[in-house]
Amino acid sequence: MQVDTSATPDWAQRFKQLAEQAKDSRLKAFYAQGAISGDTPLIDVPFVALDFETTGLNAQEDAILTIGLVPFSLKRIYCNGSAHWVVNPNRDLNEESVVIHGITDSDVKNAPQLDEILEQVLQALAGKVVVVHYKNIERQFFNQALLNTIGEGIEFPVVDTLDIEWAIQHEQCKGWLNWLKRKKPASVRLGQSRERYGLPAYQPHHALTDALATAELLQAQIQYNLSENATISLILQ
Known about the structure:
Helix content is 43%, strand content 12%. The chain has ten helices and five strands; from the N terminus they run ααβββαααβαβαααα. One of its GO terms (biological process) is DNA replication.
């Protein structure tokens, strides 16, 4: 299994630079907590699974509707530290997105603005490695949302369970015998990926449930495919 980490910066050093550059006090405090060193064993890494439900898939045009997060380690999920927020997107919701996530205009009408909960969200993420299933959503939407809200974007290290599963599936399809059998990589969607590890099916498209599902998936992926003493650098992006 080989996750592409070629673009991964030295996050500890990058956070020092970002802490100096940040203007918003909440963002500065987030960076000041530092980032994990790449040589940290997986068993020692503090993780936090993060998931957004959004009004659509375009970070430039759409907005965050809900945020769910669950802190965990390889051995334990800290449900008492989990959190879920509904966010006012300041727009009417389109019918297509309502059908997917079930969030309606009345749900968000009196919800807080992102700026009102930003400090809580950043404090929950600070000092941890963010775990997501498809990093482009959380990275792009959070960055754009902060650009729109406070005039500054955000950078943070992630482990992407979708990228890990993609690497596993392609590894399992290598070799001439698999070629002769025309074996193809299986789906790397969250539900299908969990099913392969015997994990229970959860109702999708709820930010907190999907965060929990992602946390459990990473625990299983590492249990089956990596040593807990392997370093985080193997999967950190």
